[in-house]
Amino acid sequence: MGTAKTVEAGQAAGQSERDVVLRLRGVGTVYGSKVIHENIDLDVYRGEVLALVGGSGSGKSTLLREMIMLQLPSSGSISLFGTELVGIRDAEAQSLRQRFGVLFQQGALFSGLTVLENVGVPLQEHTRLDEDTIRELAMMKIVQAGLGPEAAQLYPSELSGGMIKRAALARAMALDPEVLFLDEPTSGLDPVSAGAFDELVLRLKDLMGLTVLMVTHDLDSLWGAADRVAVLGDRTLQGIDTMEALSRSTQPRIREYFEGPRARNAQERTWKEK
Amino acid sequence: MPELNESGTGAAARVALENDQTLACSGAWTVRGIAALPRRIGAAHVPGAAAVAIDGRAITTMDTAGAWRVNRLHQRLEAAGKQVRLQAFRKEHAALIELVADTRREIPAVSPRRKLEAFYTRGVGIFDDMVSFLAFTGETVVSFFRMIWSPRRIRWKVIINEMFEAGYKAMPIVGLLSFLMGVVIAYQGAVQLQLYGASIYVADLLGYSMLRELGPLLTAILVSGRTGSAYTAQIGTMQVTEEVSALRTIGIPPMYILVLPKVIALIIVLPLLSVFADIMAIIGGMVMANLQLGIGFNAFLNRIGEAIDLTTFMIGIGKAPVFAAIIAIVGCYQGFKVRGSAESVGRHTTISVVQAIFLVIVTDALFSILFSMLGI
Predict the structure, then answer these.
(1) pTM (whole model) above 0.80
(2) Which position among A28, A31, B158, B337 has the lowest Cβ density within 10 Å, counted as fewest Cβ atoms?
């Protein structure tokens, strides 16, 4: 992990200006009279792992849904790969959708299809490859996501929680996206599986130059996997920085989030590992 | 950002033969790009050479799909007995090819044996299904008597609620359809009976067919579509969300709170609905007889009273509780068979309606045979 980070830093220093993949400016969301977000500015750089955190109900998932074009913000602008998402034309949205992958919290695997067929769906929809090629590529993705070959012919209802996440990751990775959105990737996993899943994401990210944006509650993931962490609270971004810097922050909102006993334990664990 | 556009445009992957022993790859070796490659590139393209180099210097972009294609080309050439060398690939491309080589696996085939097994399992499954349905029916009956034994367990409120849902709320549709059935039978009968000048016997026709057979049967079919399916969907969804398991761990047997109230409610309500259906059908027939044949309401009702005895009416109504038990038990049983997913709920709901209607009609036929043997 340490080496990955230094490589990252080296690359960043090499470029005079970092490549922004996703840019939010003044994003606001209002449901009826309820204000969810106000004036959120956020840049996600190419090749980084950015974690989005915040208490329950702080609108993390809503913000994520706005980034992946499932929902429109009430105000402000979101641009992905330099394309403005507000008022985007359908054809353009379709081609953008092929450049990012999404891992939903419950996996959202299609329950009537086997794992192999699930992973093949994006390939079938968006490429002109023949059936055999699609099956072989899907199989490769399944193995890359850390599943055994025997899982390929199983149906989602036959999978365990950890396997569902991996199968869903394989599907999200099917088209080799540039950006991966993960909604609580380690929720519902035991600590060992969660750690292994984080490692898997990092390894794939290094190999394929992915940009990863994840919404998470998992403090171990924050310390272990995230390059930067954005804290959402009180309808807006409270801060965005590396985990070390945030843990020293004096901002009350940030301190309250990172100061529980669980947060301290996670921090100690990471320091011991280093 | 020039490189960003690249994957958006349809840049294709290309491969060309250079100096007899080098395959020069160029273009975008991506999941979209590789579709442009010839289906089978292999040894046939480099017939002379014993050693082949795959050159990757002109590849602009590569993803895992492209790397997979390079790897497959490599394997195919090697399988043809050639020495293969990868040359001048960029570092990141070489890393991808390595990743792909590490993670390529055969797709586990669904073996013919497994297909045969599936066939066998299906056959055995039908048998198992029948056995477990009988077991479920038995369990329901046993639980019913246990509940009667300790009446504290009877959930009156749930039963009343189910009666309201399955009975009262079904009245408009049952009423309307039986009224129309009455109209249709009276009309069809009237046309025939008029020929013989036996118009008044339309009351006999209507009374016998509706009261003895069609009234209860029609009601049962409607209720299995309306209520049986709802039972399956409700219990099935609870099964998916683990509510059924929660009930069990809290110590409330699902039998007592989910199944028995439904069965009891439907057994009470279906005969009542059938009586209502009978009444509506007679009204429908009466109206039609009046319009078509000019038979007055009084004459019609008098004739019905003479033609239909209590036995005929009771035979019809007596079947209703049996139909009710079938519908409720099948609906609940299919609900408990739901496993895992939303799709499963849908499938079992369909099965539940089809099975319930099937069993209701079969039972009706059995009743007919029984009654004719008894000479009623």
Answers:
(1) no
(2) A31
A window 2-41, beta carbon within 8 A of B: 19
Nearest-angstrom CA–CA distance, A200 and A194: 10
Identify which of A219, A233, A234 has the alpha carbon closest to the alpha carbon of residue A265.
Answer: A219
CB pair distance less than 8 Å for A128 and B35: yes
Among the partner residues A81, A126, A149, nearest to B106 by beta-carbon distance = A149
Residues in A touching B104 (Cβ below 8 Å): 136, 139-140, 143
Q: Quick check: helix, strand or coil at residue A74?
A: coil
What CATH number does the domain containing B47 carry?
3.30.750.24
- A237: which strand partners? A232
The answer on B158 and B298 residing in a single domain is yes
Say yes or no: B274 and B158 in one domain: yes
Using CA atoms, how far residue A258 sits from A244, A273, B231, in Å, is 11, 19, 48
Give the contacts of B270 (CB within 8 A, at least 6 positions apart): B167, B216, B219, B220, B223, B320, B321, B323, B324, B327
Please tell me which of the candidates A19, A111, A175 has its beta carbon nearest to residue B1.
Answer: A19
* C-alpha dihedral (B169, B170, B176, B182), degrees to nearest 10: -140
Judge if B257 and B217 occupy the same domain: yes
Domain that holds residue B353: 122-374
Q: What is the pLDDT of chain A when averaged over all its residues?
A: 81
- Cα of first residue to Cα of last residue in chain A, in angstroms, is 9
* Closest C-alpha to B86, from B57, B48, B46, B43: B57
Q: Which of A95, A112, A207 sits opposite B99 (nearest CB)?
A: A207
Q: In what order do the strands lie in the sheet with A20-31?
A: A34-45, A20-31, A75-80, A83-84
pLDDT band for position A12 (50/70/90)? Answer: very low
Six token digits for residue A194: 């969660």
Distance (Å, whole) CA A121 – CA B101:
23
The reply to whether B162 falls in a domain is yes
Write out the two tokens for B79.
């399988």
Q: How many CB atoms lie within 10 A of CB B44?
A: 9
**Amino acid B185: pLDDT:** 92
Q: Let me know whether B28 and B90 are in one domain.
A: yes
**Minimal CA–CA distance to A67: which of A59, A201, A242?**
A59
Domain boundary among B73, B103, B133: B103
What letter does residue A111 receive in the DSSP assignment? Answer: T
Question: Across residues A98-116, what is the average pLDDT?
Answer: 84
Residue B5 has pLDDT above 70, yes or no: no
Cβ contact B103–A176 (<8 Å): no
Total domain count, chain B:
2
Q: Which of B345, B356, B329 is nearest to B132 (CA)?
A: B329
Write out the H or E segment, with its range, that includes residue A79: strand A75-80
